[in-house]
């Protein structure tokens, strides 16, 4: 009896010794136990998406890249140009998952369902310009995927304000609804109306600081929207490098349309331009008011340049 008990004890000691020989390691960033709950759910959904892949091997994937803004900064042009790359699968519409509560409350399964079918080697991209200026969005995106790559396209803040107004103005015109002049929005009691939402959207340093609380600057590539309009190819090359895509987009993919006044795309012999709503003429603004607008953005622009460590050719 004693000998059998001793044998059991000896076996237990040897088992414990063997277990201690197995080295332990901290959870890597990709490990399920090292991720927040939403990130674990995202990883699980990606696996489920691949298991339910179509016969040709395509499946829906959560985006590995998001164009987060800015509104009227050139996000549609950027997405269309990026879609020229064969390794990019882009969501067709603005998804508004992270900024609209009625969408976010439906969970990542709903979000995945809004994505295009793609091959395993393709990069899924979605764009929702309102993300950049929505306070809740950075943390929500980070919870889904802290390693995601973000694209932010910006243009001269004053021009962006005018473009913002122009879009809303034409939306009202199409619906045959009256809309005030831009001066009525920009001026209040003889002063620049700093409460105008379009002005707030152009305070880039304020919104970027919110994103930098959750993402390092190296995860955010800033596209110069003004340069993208004037000479798109160099800007798209930078985007390809940031996304670690092979250089597939060429200068021959772009041609200047003299009638429209901006660059259009040539893809496999097929020419296409952005919708007629893009590139609309801005309203005529009193030069003195325009000067006030430029003056207002002078200090915010300097803060933004310091924040990102580069300058832009803005007023």
From TrEMBL:
GO terms for molecular function: [heparan sulfate]-glucosamine 3-sulfotransferase activity. Residues 1-24 form the signal peptide. SUPFAM superfamilies: P-loop containing nucleoside triphosphate hydrolases. Keywords: Disulfide bond, Glycoprotein, Golgi apparatus, Signal, Transferase. It is an enzyme of class 2 (transferase). GO terms for cellular component: Golgi lumen. Residues 63-302 form the Sulfotransferase domain. One of its GO terms (biological process) is glycosaminoglycan biosynthetic process. Residues 25-59 are annotated as: Disordered. It is found in: Golgi apparatus lumen. Disulfide bonds join 264-273. It catalyses: alpha-D-glucosaminyl-[heparan sulfate](n) + 3'-phosphoadenylyl sulfate = 3-sulfo-alpha-D-glucosaminyl-[heparan sulfate](n) + adenosine 3',5'-bisphosphate + H(+). The active site is at residue 72. The keyword Hydrolase does not apply. Belongs to the sulfotransferase 1 family. Sulfotransferase that utilizes 3'-phospho-5'-adenylyl sulfate (PAPS) to catalyze the transfer of a sulfo group to position 3 of glucosamine residues in heparan. Catalyzes the rate limiting step in the biosynthesis of heparan sulfate (HSact). This modification is a crucial step in the biosynthesis of anticoagulant heparan sulfate as it completes the structure of the antithrombin pentasaccharide binding site. This is Sulfotransferase. It comes from Neomonachus schauinslandi.
């Amino acid at each position: 009896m004693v000998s059998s008990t001793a044998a059991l004890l000896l076996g237990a000691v040897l088992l414990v010794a063997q277990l201690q020989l197995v080295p332990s390691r901290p959870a890597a960033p990709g490990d399920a136990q090292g991720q927040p709950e939403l990130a674990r759910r995202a990883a699980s959904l990606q696996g489920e998406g691949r298991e339910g892949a179509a016969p040709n091997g395509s499946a829906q994937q959560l985006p590995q890249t998001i164009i987060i803004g800015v509104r009227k900064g050139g996000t549609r042009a950027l997405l269309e140009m990026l879609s020229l790359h064969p390794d990019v699968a882009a969501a067709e519409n603005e998804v508004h998952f992270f900024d609209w509560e009625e969408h976010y409350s439906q969970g990542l399964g709903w979000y995945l369902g809004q994505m295009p079918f793609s091959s395993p080697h393709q990069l899924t991209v979605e764009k929702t310009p309102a993300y950049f200026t929505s306070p809740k969005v950075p943390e929500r995106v980070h919870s889904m995927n802290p390693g995601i790559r973000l694209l932010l396209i910006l243009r001269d803040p004053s021009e962006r304000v005018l473009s913002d107004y122009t879009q809303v103005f034409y939306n009202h015109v199409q619906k045959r609804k009256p809309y005030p002049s831009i001066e009525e929005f920009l001026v209040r009691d003889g002063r620049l109306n700093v409460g105008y939402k379009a002005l707030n959207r152009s305070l880039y340093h304020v919104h970027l600081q919110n994103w930098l609380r959750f993402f390092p600057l190296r995860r955010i590539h800033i596209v110069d929207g003004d340069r993208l309009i004037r000479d798109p190819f160099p800007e798209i090359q930078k985007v390809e490098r940031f996304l670690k895509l092979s250089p597939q987009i060429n200068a021959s993919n772009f041609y200047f349309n003299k009638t429209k006044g901006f660059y259009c795309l040539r893809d496999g012999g097929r020419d296409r331009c952005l919708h007629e709503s893009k590139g609309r003429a801005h309203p005529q603004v009193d030069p003195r008011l325009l000067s006030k607008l430029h003056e207002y953005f002078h200090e915010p622009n300097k803060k933004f340049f310091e924040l990102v460590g580069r300058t832009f050719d803005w007023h």
